From TrEMBL:
<dbReference type="GO" id="GO:0009279">
    <property type="term" value="C:cell outer membrane"/>
</dbReference>
<keyword id="KW-0472">Membrane</keyword>
<keyword id="KW-0798">TonB box</keyword>
<dbReference type="InterPro" id="IPR012910">
    <property type="entry name" value="Plug_dom"/>
</dbReference>
<keyword id="KW-0675">Receptor</keyword>
<keyword id="KW-0812">Transmembrane</keyword>
<dbReference type="GO" id="GO:0015344">
    <property type="term" value="F:siderophore uptake transmembrane transporter activity"/>
</dbReference>
<dbReference type="InterPro" id="IPR037066">
    <property type="entry name" value="Plug_dom_sf"/>
</dbReference>
<keyword id="KW-0813">Transport</keyword>
<dbReference type="Pfam" id="PF07715">
    <property type="entry name" value="Plug"/>
</dbReference>
<dbReference type="InterPro" id="IPR036942">
    <property type="entry name" value="Beta-barrel_TonB_sf"/>
</dbReference>
<keyword id="KW-0998">Cell outer membrane</keyword>
<comment type="similarity">
    <text>Belongs to the TonB-dependent receptor family.</text>
</comment>
<protein>
    <submittedName>
        <fullName>TonB-dependent receptor</fullName>
    </submittedName>
</protein>
<feature type="domain" description="TonB-dependent receptor-like beta-barrel">
    <location>
        <begin position="279"/>
        <end position="704"/>
    </location>
</feature>
<feature type="signal peptide">
    <location>
        <begin position="1"/>
        <end position="43"/>
    </location>
</feature>
<feature type="domain" description="TonB-dependent receptor plug">
    <location>
        <begin position="85"/>
        <end position="182"/>
    </location>
</feature>
Length: 738
């Protein structure tokens, strides 16, 4: 039966040393329950349970002639044991939750994450976890995904998610580089997906999205494929609060394939391939005043007026990656070795005439990054009390930034001098990351578990930096219903490669694209101390509460901003930063009824911008140097709530997101907040039996009360154009499950 739930856990027993024999009866019961539901999706979420139920006595290395599905499940459980999240705060989101939220599997990936505590919404599809900008690591089946170029395209498709976990807090030593949170996705696979799904989704804002899924197994091979095409008239957030965005069409193609081949009872090869191609029109804001030169005169374009509603800026994004992983069980030793490659590109095409008229500059920006890497993780059971884990991670990336910028010359009096001319600036940069870790899970007593270790990370690009990072987490299971945890982590966060070179800044002196100042210190890695403490409590069966508090002190705190017309984020540092907050979560489930509620308080402040200073107004730099300010993405209060009910073959839900507003300029930089908002969404789905197959009909209403809310007003440190949340929309889905 499908339900709507968010599960919070502080992992003590999960992903630790588990005997197939001791848990055989437990997993068998769950597997039999899933079979009784008759749901492909439900069965898939219990694939590991099924494997354990059918396993023979003894360790997996002594099992012979097991069925493909059984071996596959045992390998899944062994892989979970390699990568543990002991002491961290983990929010698990299942297929059932995704189905019971706004737009279901057709929702964007970030919309799914917004239902977790402490996740704030921003423009261009961005999210912020625990008061940080970006700094999220994405993993698929426990393999790190290399970073692409920052932008608004979302390359991950909700459709292939079997289960995802948002891991925050004091992360164990296997997690490095990106530390605000880890999004760990376990994909659907063919072991329990013998069949497929063809779907058509569409509705408001000219939205239409056909998609398909298909999975199965053939001998020792398990496979799963999915693909989709989306056309929408609201590709990026509208810069106005109107119901009819101007020049905002988007066409997006996504595909994903997962193949797993069982070599023997203790090993397998897995291959993941993904591609995403997105074309976006940059939406227009009508009735904008024309640009002016320093003396207040319109830029000389022959006196021809230009309507801002007619601008024609466009951006194309491409993201592709492949992962090949080998997993092996050797008695008490489990390990996985993976190689991966990714390519990411962004091409921004300006409106050459219009951008000159309004901004005095028109830039064609072409950026791409190619990354190759390797990752190895292992676990070894020393004895009943100790499990040792260790591994390495390394990547090599080449970033290329080619620009052609049309500008005016500026004379000695500060006037623009026609005609405009182009400045070509092409740069490339290699960047390298390396990390290694070792940690011990020590089960002191039945109530106390300590996970301690360290990692060493190194980064080389414009500059070379490294750090030793100790990690410590303690978990105390006070009662069967109460679990407490506390931890400390030292973090090292390298900057992305999209920095601007010194030569680039110098090329634009005495032009209409000249920087306000010439200072451009290199962007550095962030170093921080992170503390976390929390508790989970089961009040009554089905009702669980979670409370978690965190505090972070950062040196060279990283942030990103949009500088210029291209919708690409550029990194910079604050000399000192401070982030702290509290999260409260609650879930309840009984029979077909599920409910969740999350509320978070967060404060993120910083001072003294000490890199990429040319992007900022000198007056702002002077103020921020000696004063703490809220970072632009700070949202003090964030929340989400939802209920759903499954009755036979009908599912109904209602949910709401709450944000009390991101920052905007006031009397001081980022000195005020925008208005709060709380859009409500609802929907219903019914399944019809068609022979042995199902026909699903679904109807969703987004922003039921048509609330007009502003995510950005165009002011703030590193903030581009205004952005409004989506107005009311009606969407329908027909799916044929076979």
């Amino acid at each position: 039966m499908k339900t709507f739930s968010i599960i919070q856990k502080h992992s003590v027993l999960n992903k630790t040393k588990v005997s197939f024999v001791n848990q055989r009866a437990y997993w068998a019961a769950i597997w039999l329950a899933s079979l009784s539901c008759g749901s492909i999706a439900q069965a898939q979420t219990n694939e590991v349970s099924a494997s354990a139920a059918t396993a023979s006595s003894g360790s997996s290395t002594n099992v012979s002639k097991l069925e493909n599905v059984t071996v596959f499940g045992q390998l899944e459980e062994a892989r979970n044991k390699i990568v543990a999240d002991l002491g961290a705060t983990t929010y698990t989101i299942t297929q059932q939750q995704i189905e019971a939220q706004s737009q279901g599997q057709n929702a964007s990936f970030n919309q799914v994450l917004l239902r977790a505590p402490g996740v704030a919404q921003d423009s261009f599809g961005q999210i912020h976890v625990r008061g940080e900008h970006a700094n999220l690591q994405y993993r698929i089946n426990d393999v790190i995904l290399p970073e692409g170029i920052s932008g608004f395209g979302q390359t991950l498709d909700t459709r292939f998610v079997n289960q995802l976990e948002l891991i925050t807090g004091t992360l164990p030593a296997q997690y490095g580089f990106r530390t605000a949170g880890v999004v760990d996705i376990h994909t659907k696979n063919g072991a329990f997906n013998s069949g497929g799904d063809a779907s058509l989704y569409g509705g408001s804002f000219s939205t239409i999205q056909p998609s398909f899924e298909y999975g199965g197994k053939q001998g020792d091979l398990n496979y799963y494929y999915t693909g989709s095409y989306l056309h929408t008239g609201q590709g990026i957030e509208n810069p106005t609060g109107s119901n009819d965005p101007i020049h905002d069409n988007s066409d997006q193609f996504k595909g994903f394939a997962y193949l797993s081949y069982v070599l023997d009872d203790t090993s397998r090869l897995s291959l993941m391939l993904s591609g995403a191609h997105g074309y976006f029109q940059v939406p227009n804001n009508p009735n904008q005043p024309p640009g002016t030169d320093p003396n207040g005169n319109p830029f000389p374009l022959g006196g021809v007026a230009f309507n801002s509603s007619s601008l024609n800026e466009n951006q194309t994004e491409q993201n592709y990656y492949g992962v090949l992983a080998y997993q092996k069980i050797l008695g008490d030793l489990n390990f996985q070795l993976a190689g991966f490659s990714s390519y990411s590109s962004v091409l921004f095409r300006p409106d050459s005439t219009g951008d000159l008229f309004f901004n005095g500059v028109a830039s064609r920006v072409d950026r791409h990054i190619l990354t190759q890497g390797v990752q190895g993780d292992s676990s070894y059971d020393i004895n009943e009390a100790h499990t040792l884990r260790g591994g390495i991670q390394g990547t090599a990336s080449k970033a290329v930034a080619d620009t052609s910028t049309t500008v005016f010359a500026i004379d000695g009096a500060g006037n623009a001098v026609p005609p405009p001319f182009a400045i070509v600036d092409n740069n490339s940069l290699w960047g390298y990351l390396f990390g290694a870790y070792l940690q011990d899970e020590w089960k002191i007593t039945d109530k106390w578990t300590v996970n301690f270790g360290a990692r060493v990370d190194a980064y080389h690009a414009v500059i070379t930096e490294s750090e030793f990072e100790p990690r410590l987490n303690a978990i105390f299971k006070a009662t069967e219903k109460t679990t407490l945890h506390a931890g400390y982590a030292r973090y090292f966060t390298p900057p992305p490669l999209e920095s601007i070179s010194r030569t680039t800044v110098a090329k634009f002196e005495n032009t209409s694209n000249a920087a306000a100042n010439s200072q451009n210190d290199p962007v550095r890695a962030e170093r921080s101390h992170y503390f976390d403490v929390g508790a989970t409590q089961t009040l009554v069966p089905g009702l669980n509460l979670g409370l978690d508090g965190y505090y972070k002190i950062a040196k060279n705190q990283l942030d990103e901003g949009q500088f210029g017309q291209a919708l690409i984020e550029t990194p910079f540092n604050y000399n000192h930063g401070e982030v702290y907050g509290v999260e409260l979560s609650a879930t309840y489930k009984k029979d077909g009824f599920s409910a969740f509620g999350n509320f978070a308080y967060s404060v993120a402040k910083a001072h003294d911008i000490n890199s990429a200073q040319f992007n900022f107004d000198p007056a702002d730099l002077a103020y921020i140097k000696n004063h703490d300010i809220f970072v632009d993405h700070n949202q003090t209060f964030t929340g989400s709530v939802g209920v759903s009910y499954q009755w036979r073959k009908t599912l109904a839900y209602v949910d709401m997101l709450y944000g009390n507003g991101l920052r905007a300029d006031g009397a001081v930089p980022n000195g005020r907040k925008l208005n709060s908002y709380s859009p409500v969404n609802l929907g219903i789905e019914h399944s019809f039996q068609v022979g042995k197959n199902l026909l699903k009909a679904r109807f969703d209403v987004v922003n039921v009360f048509d609330e007009t809310y502003e995510l950005r007003d165009g002011t703030g440190i590193g903030v581009g154009a205004p952005q409004f949340g989506s107005r009311r929309g009606f969407y329908g889905t027909l799916s044929y499950v076979f």
